[in-house]
Each structure stands twice: as C-alpha cells, then as structure tokens.
Amino acid sequence: MILISFGTRPEWIKIKPIIDQMRGKIPFKLLFTGQHTSLIDKGMENYEHDSIRMENDLLSRIGCNNRLDEIVSSILRQFGDQEYSAVMVQGDTTSAFAVALAAFHRRIPVIHLEAGLRTFDKHNPYPEEFNRTAISALTEVHLCPTETSAMNIIQCTPNGKQVHVVGNTVLDHLVGIQPRLDDVVLFTMHRRENHHNIHEWFNAINDIAREEKLKYDGLEFICPMHPNPDVAKHADILKQVKVVPPLSHKDCIDYISRCKFAITDSGGIQEEACFLKKKCIVCRKVTERVEGIGDFAFLCERPSDLRQLVYKLKETKSLVDKDCPYGDGHSAEKIMSILSEFYNAIGSAGKKQQDD
C-alpha cells in the first residue's frame, strides 16, 4: 500500500488526478496533515483519509510558538509505525518535508511529486526552497514536471536514480477549457517572502486600479483574499480592487481562463496561466519555474516595478502562441505507469526475500 499525504489545497489539487488513476489498481491510503484547513476543497470530503492533529497547545506549553516547528513536531509524533510500500509527498510544504522525514526514519521509500524545482536560494522562497531540497535527499522516485527540474535532481542529488519527467498534474484539470481575453486582471498574493512588504504591493495595485478607473475605464482588478492574517490585515488598502473571499479551484480557473493576465506570487497560477496561454506577472525576486520566463511569465522584484509591467501586458491582444513547458494535461497517466512498475517491483522483491 502507498501512503499519499497532503496538507494544503494546492497539494490536494495536484494529487487528486493521481488518486483517481490509482483507484482499483494500486492500493493507497490518504493522510491529511492539516497544514491548511480553510482552503481545502469540499471535494476531499468524498475521499476517506486519516488526519494529523496540529499540536499547537502542546508546543505552547513548552514555550514554542513557531508554526513551522508545530507542523514538523505534530507529524513526527503522530505518523505511526504502519508499514507502507512507499510514501508519496507533493511539492515543497513543511508538512511534505515532515512526512518524508518520518518515512525515511522508518526506511519507507519516498516518492516526490513535483520534484526538482529550485531557485538555489534557501531564503527565496522561505522555507520552501529548503523543504524541497531536503525532500529530494530523502527520495527514491523523483517525479519532475520539466526537463530542467529533472536535470536539477540529476546534477545535485546523489540518489537521483529514478528521475522521471511527467509534467505537472495541476494541468490535468484544465484539459478542454477554452480561454478568452477579458479586461480583467487576477491578483493574488500569499507567500511568506512577501509578507514584510505586502502593504507596498497592495498600495501599488490599488494605485494602478484607481488610475484605470479614472483615466481609462479599463482593466478591472480582482483579488481573492488569502486568509493568512499577515495578508488579510492589509485588505483595506485595496479600495479600488474587487476583493472577494478565497475562491474554489474551479472558480479560480474560471478567472484565469478569462483574464487578460494575472499578477501573482503563486507557482500554481503561474503554471495554470501558462497552460491557458496567458501572461503572468510574478511578484517575486526569483522563481523556480524558469521555463516560461519571457514568453508567459515576467518577474517583478519590487512593487515600484509593477506599473511598467502592467501597462506592457495591458496591450496584450491575443493568447500566447507557444506550447506550455509545464506539461500537456496528461501527467497522472504517465505517473500511473511509473507507480505500477515501482509497486510491482517492490512486491516482487518482497516475495523473493520471503522465498529466500
């Protein structure tokens, strides 16, 4: 049996196509780590799963109030000693790192979905760059979205033997969607690396939105507000922006499919916009998704640089006429073939060991 863990909405969205492929073919069990609870789609309620309970009360009693410590401690304490053929983790969250570490401590092979993404700067993004690098060091099967990410594993990871380029499963949800270009700009921001100056980003967006209304009667800016208190406390700045509650994944895709372009610090939206032939302003100093830079994505390191990029992308008249470098929307099928071979090999090895 393969244990598949997830703890955030992006993780759930990216493992779901694989789960649906595995049903009735490879036995699996789901573990919800509880890193996020408010953003998980209701659809997960139809999937039986075990859960980790975050032990914030316990850590507070011993004088620890660090959220990252809480996640790692809770998972290591509650993981248990059930035997699994393998454990699959997705992406670069702290809970993914903790589950991979718990599996390694029990000598259970780790399968890493979305492996090999790198900025080579451990502080950007923080703590994700450390998490994914550490997960790679613990991993047996690396499922990489692109050739670039696969090369990162091959060059930097001593145990990078089972390295597969499969695309990104987030795109499996988008097959068949017909995009269009409306005068709408989707704006999202949530990354920890932007928390220190998020008020500056919000002021920059609000000023541009005000100018659009007063001078041009042009672009409409829409911001699904992330529930993180360090983000949401600045929502009042966005007086000229349509602020809405967190969107379901379906509604978010609807906005991406019809926006003129997106402004975001989200890697998932960067990939989804690319698949739907949209341009995207990436509000970060660096990005691990380098393949689309210059065609689909444009880095914006500082709020003061935003205006120039917005007015450049505002002139967009057509969809991007290039292939998406992050996958073709059929990643889960490729992964299923790899997992079947891996699972059968483990079973054969175990049977041989019993016979011996």
How are the elements arranged and paired?
Layout: E1 2-6, H1 9-22, E2 28-32, E3 50-51, H2 56-61, H3 67-78, E4 86-90, H4 94-105, E5 110-113, H5 128-138, E6 141-144, H6 147-156, E7 162-165, E8 184-187, H7 198-216, E9 220-224, H8 229-232, E10 242-244, H9 249-258, E11 261-264, H10 267-275, E12 279-282, E13 297-299, H11 306-313, H12 331-355
Parallel strand pairs: 1-2, 1-4, 2-3, 4-5, 5-6, 6-7, 8-9, 8-11, 9-10, 11-12, 12-13
Helix pairs in contact: 1-12, 3-4, 4-5
What does this structure look like?
It is a single chain. The radius of gyration is 21 Å and the shape is globular. The protein contains 12 helices and 13 strands. The two termini are 23 Å apart. The chain folds into 2 domains: 2-172 and 329-355, 3-Layer(aba) Sandwich (Rossmann fold); 184-313, Glycogen Phosphorylase B (Rossmann fold), CATH 3.40.50. The strands form 2 sheets. A 7-stranded parallel sheet has the order 3-2-1-4-5-6-7, with helices on both faces. Strands 10-9-8-11-12-13 form a 6-stranded parallel sheet, with helices on both faces. The protein has helices spanning 9-22, 56-61, 67-78, 94-105, 128-138, 147-156, 198-216, 229-232, 249-258, 267-275, 306-313, 331-355; strands spanning 2-6, 28-32, 50-51, 86-90, 110-113, 141-144, 162-165, 184-187, 220-224, 242-244, 261-264, 279-282, 297-299. The chain has 356 residues and is an alpha/beta fold. Helix 1 crosses helix 12 (331-355) and helix 4 (94-105) packs parallel to helix 5 (128-138).
